[in-house]
Amino acid sequence: MCGIVGVTGSSQAASVLLEGLKRLEYRGYDSAGLAIARPGGPVVYKEEGKIRNLEARLDGEDLSGTCGIAHTRWATHGAPNQINAHPHLAGKVAVVHNGIIENHNALKVQLGKKGRIFRSETDTEVLAHLIDDFYKGDLVEAVQLALGVVEGAFGIAVIHSDEPDLIVGARKGSPLVVGVGDGVNYLASDVSAILEHTRQVIYLDDGEMVTLRPSGIATMNINNEAITKEIQEITWDLSQIQKGGFAHFMLKEIFEQPRTIRDSFRGRILPESGDVKLGGIQLTDWELRNIRRIIILACGTSFHAGLVGEYMLEEYAHIPVEVEYASEFRYRSPIIEAGTLCLVISQSGETIDTLEAMREAKRKGAKVLGITNVVGSTIARESECGVYIHAGPEIGVASTKAFTSQVTILGLITILLGRRGHINADRGTKMLRELDKIPDLVQQVLDHSDRIMEIAKVYAHHRNCLYLGRGVNFPIALEGALKLKEISYIHAEGYPAAEMKHGPIALIDPQMPVVVIATKDGSYDKIVGNVQEVRARSGKIISVVTEGDEEIAKLSDHVITIPDTMNFWMPLLSVVPLQLLAYHIAVLRGEDVDQPRNLAKAVTVE
Ligand code: AGP
User: Which amino acid residue places its CA nearest to atom 10 of ligand 1?
Assistant: First the structure.
C-alpha cells in the first residue's frame, strides 16, 4: 500500500516529509519521492528502492521550503522505477496518489490530443496533467473538476507553485488523515507518519476534500460544499498504529480481505456482458480458445490457491488442469505440448522453486502467465504476461489476503476462458454479480472472530489436528492445516475426507480435533458420513458449515457457520474461519504470529 505525507508551515518541511516516509516503511514500497513547493515550480526528488536512496539524492541539495508532499510507492501501474515514482509533475502541479484510476488510459488519450507528453507508465501522472489542464488559478477547483472525471479509488495530495503554502487533499477509497498543528498542518495516508508532531487528527471519509495552510484547515466535499469534521485525539502508540490497531499484521491482513478481494476484481469485471477484462493477459481470443491444457506451478499457500483454481477451470472452462509443486516440476521431465498454458502463482514473485519451474516450462514451449502480488518482481517480469492480484503488501509471513486474492483472480481467469467456451452471458453475469457480494459476506465471517477464539481456547494446547474437506473444500483443508502448523507449530494435516478411511482414521481419538469443511455442495451427503465416522471414534469435531445447516451441526462439538454463496466462490468464505482459528490458537500459545520460527516471507534460496 502506498504512503502519503504532506506538511505546510514547517521551516523543515523536507525533513518532516522524510521522517514521515520512514514511519510508513513498514507498509512495504519500491520507490520514494518528495516535492517542495517553490515559486518557480515544485522541486521534485524521487528514487527507486529504499528511502535511503532518496536521502542520498537529497544530500547537498537546497531543501528550503515550508510546504511539500511525499510518497512511498507500492507499484500497481508501471514498473517500480525512478520515472514511475511519485510525486508526478505536470506544469506547476505536483501530485502523490494512493489507489487505482481505472479510466486512466482513456484520459491519457484525451490529454495526449491536447499535446500533453507523458513520461511515466502511471495512472497518477495522468491525474497530474488533468489537474494542470483544469487549473485556472484555483487549485481546489482544478482538483474538483479533475476528480469529477476520474473513475476508481484514490487518496491524493496536490500542490501548485502559484499557491505555495496550500496542500489540497481528497479521498475516495484510500485513507487520508489530517494532522492539526499550531501554525503547521499535516496530511498523511496513515497516522503513524505524523504522530510525532500531533495527536489531533481529522479522518477524511470517501468523497471528502481538505485544504491545508499554515493558518488553518478547511474541509469540504468534492462538490465544494463545506463540511464540518470532528478533531479526534490519538491515544495509540506507534507500533499499534502501524498494525492499524490490530495486535498483529496477520490479523490486520485477515481483516483487510473484504477490501483486498474487491481490489483484486476492481475495474476488471463486466457484469452486463458476463465477461472480464484482464489487461495483463496479452493473449488473443483465438489463443484463449485454443488452450488445450493448463499447468499450475506454485508452492505453499499459492499451491493451494492453484488447487482451487483446478476445480474452477475444469468445471467451468472445461480445460484439463494439473497443479504441480513447483519444486518437483522443475526436476521432472514434464511433457509440454502445443496449447499448454502455465499459470505461475506467487505472492512474492521471488520464490526460487516457482521461478525455476516457470523457466523450465518456458524452455519447453509453454505460454506462461504470472499471478503475482509484487509489481516488478522477478516472476512478474519474466512471465510473458500476467495479472497482479492488488492485495497490497502482505507483511505477515503466513499468507492470508494473498490467498483469497489469488483465488479471486483464478476465478476471473476461469470466466475469461469459459466465456470463450462453455459459459454463456447469463451464467457469467450471475457469477460476477455473486462475486460483487463476496466482500460483504467475508465481513460477516470476520464478525465471528470472537466465537472462533472461544473454540481456539479449547484446542490451543493439543498436539495434532486433522482437516478434512471434499471437492473444492479439500484444498481449503490443506490451507487451513498449513496455517495452523506454520504459526502454532501444532502438527496439522489436510486430507480429502473420503481418504480418511485409508489410513488417517487410525489417528482419531478424543485427543484429535478434526476440522471439517462441510459447506452445502454436491458432496454434502458424503461428508456427513465422514463426520459420523469421526464421531463414532470420539474424535472432536469442529465443523465449518453453511448458515442454516442442522445435520452436521448436530454431529459436531463446535460449529462455525458461513453465509451461502455459489460453490464457485465458496472457498473465499470457507478459508476465513480457518485463518482465524490458526491465528487465535497461535496467539494463545504465545507464538510469534507475524514472524514464525524457521520461516521466511519469500523463499528465495533452494
Ligand atoms: C504461506 O503461508 C507460506 N508463507 C508459504 O507456504 C508461501 O505460500 C510459499 O512460500 C509461496 O510463497 P509465494 O506465494 O511468495 O511464492
Answer: 300
Cα-based distances in Å from 426 to 62, 391, 422: 62, 29, 12
Cα separation, 573 vs 55, in Å, equals 44
pLDDT at 240: 66
Instruction: Name the packing angle between helices 571-588 and 449-459 (round to 10°).
Output: 50
**Does the CB atom of residue 163 touch ligand 1 within 6 A?**
no
* pLDDT at position 398 over 90: yes
pLDDT at 27 over 90: no
Question: In degrees, to the nearest 5, what angle opens at C-alpha 148 toward C-alphas 142 and 149?
Answer: 105
For ligand 1, whether the C-beta of 486 sits within 6 Å is yes
The C-alpha cell at 342 is: 502455465
For the record, the C-alpha cell of 45 comes out as 526528488
Q: What is the mean pLDDT of residues 42-59?
A: 95
Amino acid, single-letter form, for residue 411: G
Whether 123 lines ligand 1, by a CB cut-off of 6 Å, is no
- Residue that wins the pLDDT comparison between 193 and 602: 193
What percentage of the chain exceeds 90 in pLDDT? 80
Residue 281 DSSP one-character state: -
**Mutate which of 395, 483, 603 for ligand 1 pocket (most atoms within 8 A of beta carbon):** 603
**What stretches of 238-309 adopt beta strand conformation (E)?**
269-270, 275-276, 293-298
| Residue among 248, 296, 302, 343 to mutate when testing ligand 1 (max atoms within 8 A of CB) | 302
Which H/E stretch holds residue 510?
none
Ligand 1 mean position, distance from CA 189 (Å): 28
Position 300 pLDDT exceeds 80: yes
Cα(352) to ligand 1 centroid in Å equals 11
pTM for the whole structure:
0.77
Q: Which residues are catalytic?
A: 2, 601
Distance CA 57, CA 45 (A): 7
